[in-house]
Protein: Alpha-tocopherol transfer protein-like
Amino acid sequence: MKLKTDLLVQPSGEISKKIREELKEDVNTRYKDLAAIKEWLRKQPHLPDEWEDMPLLTFLRGSSFSLEKCKRKLDMYFTMRAACPEFFSNRDATSPELREILKGKLQGPPLPGVTPNGRRVTICRGVHPSLDGQQITDTLKLALMVGDVRLMEEVQGVAGDIYVLDAAVLGPSLLARLSPTTVKKFMICVQEAYPVKLKEVHIINTSPIVERFLTFVKPFLKEKIRKRIFIHKELKDLYKYVPQEMLPEEYGGQCGTMEELQVQWTQKLIDYRDWFKAQDSIKANESLRPGKPTNYDELFGIDGSFRQLSID
Structure:
C-alpha cells in the first residue's frame, strides 16, 4: 500500500534521535526484539500466528521496548478486537453510515507534523451538534480506525500523542445519548490495548456542558490521564503546548484547513478498506486461551475498575 507521507510527516534528524532515546529504541537490537514478539505470537494458541511487522514495531515502541508490556498490550488488543465487534467489524469508510459521520458530523484528523519534542497532535471537533447512539459508537469506531492506520504508518515512531478537543459544537443531547458501557469499552481500548502514549488532552472553546462531559468520562480514566487534561479559556493558551504554525488555519496555523485534512484522512481510510476487511479474522479466540478465558462481563462491568487490567 502506497503511503501518503504528507499526511503523517515522519520525524527526522535530531527530533528522531530524541524520540528513539525516549522510547528506549536501540536500532541495533530492535529487530531482535521484533523477532522475539513474532515468536511469542506463534506460540499463543488463542492469538493470531502472524501479523505485519510494522504494527508490531509500533507496539514495541509504545511499550518502550519492554517485551512483557508489549505482550500484554497485544493480548489485550486482539482480545478487544473479538470483544467489541461494534468497534472492530464493518470498518468500511465508504459505507453510508460512516460516510455521513466523516462528511457532516465530526472531524478528527491527526496533523501532518510533530511537535518539537516529537509528539503527534490530533484535533477533534464536531461539525453537527446532534449524534444518535449508533453514530456515537461509529464515531469511536472511526477513531480506532485512524489508530490502526497509524499502527501501520508511523514508520519512525513518535514520542507520544496530544489530543485537542474543540468543544464549540457539543450539544447537550450528546450527553444524554452517551452509553457508559460504550465509553468504558472505548477507554479500555485506548488505555490498555493500543500502544498510545497519551501525553496531553487540551480542551478549547469550553462550556458548562464540557464540565458535565468530563464528570461523565473521568471515572473511566486512569489517574495519570486525568492529570493531563487541560482546559483553555483562550486559543492562544494552546500555543504554549502546540506550536501555532503546525495547527490548521482555523486555529491560527499553517497546515491547511480542517476540511482539507478531513477529506485526506477520509480517503486514507477508504484506501485501507481491503486491509480492514482482512483484519476481521485477526483477533483472539477465547476458546483456545490457556487457563481461564476472558470474561467480557467482568472486563466491561461498569462497577469494575481498571485494576485487573492495569499496565503501568
